[in-house]
Specification:
Elements: H1 2-19, H2 25-34, H3 38-47, H4 76-83, E1 90-95, E2 101-104, H5 105-110, E3 114-122, E4 126-134, H6 137-144, E5 152-161, E6 164-171, H7 172-175, E7 180-183, E8 185-186, E9 189-190, E10 200-203, E11 215-221, H8 234-238
Parallel strand pairs: 1-11
Antiparallel strand pairs: 1-2, 3-4, 4-8, 5-6, 5-11, 7-10, 8-9
The structure holds the ligand Nc1nc2c(c(=O)[nH]1)N[C@H]1C(S)=C(S)[C@@H](COP(=O)(O)O)O[C@H]1N2 and molybdenum atom.
Length: 247
Amino acid sequence: MKRRNVLVGALAAFVSACNEVSETSVFRNIVDGAQSWHRGLHRALGFGRITMAPEFSPSEISPFFRGNGSLDVNTEAYRKAEAEGFANWRLSVTGLVDNELSLSLADIRALPQRTQITRHDCVEGWSAIGQWTGPQLSHVLEAAGVQDSARFAVFRCADTLGGSAYYESVDLDDAYHPQTIIAHALNGQPLPVLNGAPLRMRIERQLGYKHAKYLTGIELVDSLTPIAGGKGGYWEDRAGYQWYAGI
Ligand SMILES: Nc1nc2c(c(=O)[nH]1)N[C@H]1C(S)=C(S)[C@@H](COP(=O)(O)O)O[C@H]1N2
Ligand SMILES: [Mo]
């Protein structure tokens, strides 16, 4: 009985959140997609890994959230995008989906938002607490219509490190996790360039290197083997970092 109430409550909240978004075609598409809620809700109710990362209070936010890895993207295209306030940035959703998406920053900001204050832990031995805002990746995936054969979400980034594109990936449990968001704001401000402007992933139950910055694309795949070095991420391919970087 209790479980049932949880389900009904979660669904009601989900539907009312969806009803608040405006009527333009991309939102219509997202909301229609969101109504096939089975997978996300199924996972959220405990058929996947549902542990939540700890969340903190505003007084615990670090005064400065340092940058790590790429601190900027040194391309003409990125300089132009920055000068335009990232108004023309697109995030693509491709691969094993029924509807490929190309979302603008305005689209991302107009979706139902989640704000969370979490601690970022880098393997290099530092941590910082920040408040992140953005839509849950699950909403975007529902709109795209993830096909049954998909097993991983791959995150494509605009930057290169040592000449190779940064990328990362997670399984669908982490992709649909409620704290997995596409963040466009840090501490209530647009994401600084240092921290991955205009969009970066937050994958809160995993180490820092999973949180792809300068996000340009999300690709649904059934295998990581054909991608780059085949280990599912930039550092996994090079330094032997674990692909599942749970904390
Ligand atoms: N695109 C991209 N994403 C990235 C990196 C990077 O170099 N490029 N570095 C990773 C590492 S190791 C960490 S700890 C975090 C750092 O995020 P921050 O710069 O906001 O502190 O981003 C991760 N995501
Ligand atoms: Mo890191």
